[in-house]
Specification:
Layout lengths: L20 H12 L13 H9 L13 H13 L5 H14 L2 H22 L13 H35 L2
Length: 173
């Protein structure tokens, strides 16, 4: 369960040098492999990236290069698309960036996803403190979204363990 102590790079830690498409895919696949629920599926492919730009899920690249803002969007999309539709993710992102800069919204997402994973796998305490007011709708929505992801990750891991245990027991019969 390496993802329990996984830390998502904050906005200031994302690569400052703009990346080409293939570099973005390598960077994100390496970064997100711990958070990929369906490990046999890619979180990002060239086709997906083109589609995200075409559908305006992420801003268009500048001179075929992607900045840290693009990476922030792609990390959020990569995590949340395992639970939500692209339309829902776009709506969630738009709600967050109405009140915060991309950098603030992204860093808030990172903090919340890490806390949610720890809450689901370790403490089982879902009343953990958030960076912003838990009583505003945007905060409640983000917290619910990341908890949805963390719960799906938990169930998937539990079922993997059960399947492995069942196979082990069958082999010992």
């Amino acid at each position: 369960m390496e993802f329990v102590n996984f830390s998502i790079p904050r906005f200031k830690q994302l690569p400052k040098v703009p990346l080409y498409k293939d570099q973005v895919i390598i960077y994100l696949e390496d970064l997100a492999k711990s958070l990929n629920i369906e490990s046999n599926e890619k979180l990002l492919t060239p086709t997906m990236l083109n589609s995200y730009v075409k559908q305006r899920v992420i801003p268009a690249p500048k001179d075929k290069k992607y900045t840290e803002e693009h990476l922030a969007y792609l990390i959020v999309v990569g995590v949340l698309k395992q639970v939500f539709s692209l339309q829902e993710i776009c709506e969630l992102i738009n709600i967050q960036i109405k009140g915060y800069s991309v950098e603030e919204a992204y860093d808030y997402f990172c903090d919340e996803i890490e806390k949610a994973i720890k809450a689901v796998f370790i403490t089982r305490d879902f009343s953990y403190a958030s960076m912003v007011d838990n009583n505003i709708k945007e905060s409640k929505m983000l917290k619910s979204a990341v908890l949805s992801f963390a719960h799906k990750l938990y169930i998937t891991e539990y079922l993997k363990d059960e399947t492995t245990n069942d196979q082990f027991h069958l082999l010992n019969i």
